[in-house]
Amino acid sequence: MAYLGTLPSGELVPVLSSAVSAPLIRLISLLVRLSTSAYNNGLPATDFTLKIGGRGAELIDVSQFFGIADPEVEKHNFTYYEDLFAEEEEAVTPANVLLKSYRNIQLHNPGQYDVEICYNNGMITKASWEVLPLAQEKKAKNVIFFVGDGMAGSMLSAARLLGHKTINGKYQTKLKLDEARVFL
């Protein structure tokens, strides 16, 4: 059996297989999207790669790591206006993007993983992912989880209506979002 590396406890982390029939990844991501934009004279690099491995282990291609086929490269060519001033001046911004979507990937083994993206003839961007072990006992009950990246006010109102009791139009409890110090 091949191993990616070791956990801080010294336990070996085996290579993952796509044969695992578990639910989609809950600990890291359901979808990894890798894209490269126009950089060299308006042309995106076609030779971009994504590698992953356990902390301190040799990084391998993500398709080989997860045992999946390498996705096809998607091409997106469009223009847009950066703001209303650019629209008034009819100054369009071109977007020329190449994209790969790795779907249904799963990291089941807790530990730290290093990820490396190579693009534009040798440029490298590195990241680290930490996969936490699943809790031994259930602690949450009756939780409604809202992911609100860019939520509008109407969406927040809908979340409040679904999640909290009201008396005479006044909420009796607050969303955790409303209790955050950032919003006070």
TrEMBL record:
> What's this protein's name?
Uncharacterized protein
Q: Which domain of life is it from?
A: Eukaryota
| Natural source organism | Cryptococcus wingfieldii CBS 7118
Q: Which InterPro entries match?
A: Alkaline_phosphatase_core_sf
